Structures are given as structure tokens and as C-alpha cells.
Amino acid sequence: VVISPEWHGMVPSALKNFFLLATWRELADKPGLIVAVSSGLGGSYPVSELRISSTKNNRLCYMPDHLIIRDVENVLLDPEKMSETDKYLSGRIDHDLKLLLAYAEALGKVRAANLRDWENYPNGM
Description:
The structure is a single chain. The chain is an alpha/beta fold. It has a single domain (2-113), classed as 3-Layer(aba) Sandwich (Rossmann fold). It has four helices and three strands; from the N terminus they run E-H-H-E-H-E-H. It has a three-stranded parallel beta sheet, with helices on both faces. The radius of gyration is 16 Å and the shape is flat. The model has no long low-confidence stretch (mean pLDDT 96).
């Protein structure tokens, strides 16, 4: 699970640096779920940025689904008093985590098949 706050409309530099330093040895053919958080109504830019530029050489496989938690300081605070937004977000989080487990199982088979030729093709195109 990759959680990214929206920092001036971007992924924070420390998280970007993590993906620059990570290699296929750590992340290749493993599922990723992007979770963007924003104190306001934003949050979509980190999703796009992570999808575009964080997987080229490490081969992390993001799920098509992602989560954006907007107004993060005011949601999911009290399980006893859940708003409609809280109920939706909670359900969506559960849904996406179940999907992530299914992706992990499926991609485990891809890794076990050992089909990648890391010696000749270690980096993305």
C-alpha cells in the first residue's frame, strides 16, 4: 500500500526518492494500491504522478483501483458516528484491500514462474 499525502499538488520528494532507489529486486511483480490523502478537496495529482513515474525500473504493478481520502482531518474519526462519506470510504477501503489480496495471490504465481530475464532486461523501456 503506497500512501501519499498531496504536497503542493505533488508526491512528497522522500516518497519519489524511495521509488528512484527501489529496484526490481524489492518490488517487481508485486501489487500496489495507491492511497492519496489531502487536507482539502484535492488528492488526484499524486495518483497520476505515481502511476506515471514510480514503476519504470522497479516493475511494481499498481492495481487499476486507487483510493483518494479528501478532507482527511475530518473523515473516518469515529466508528460509532459514521457519516455517509465515512461509510462509503470504509466500504471502498475494505473492497480495495480484498482486491489487493487477490492481486498478491495472482502476482505470486507470476513471480514463481520466474519468466523475467533480469540479466538482459533489467530496466523498463
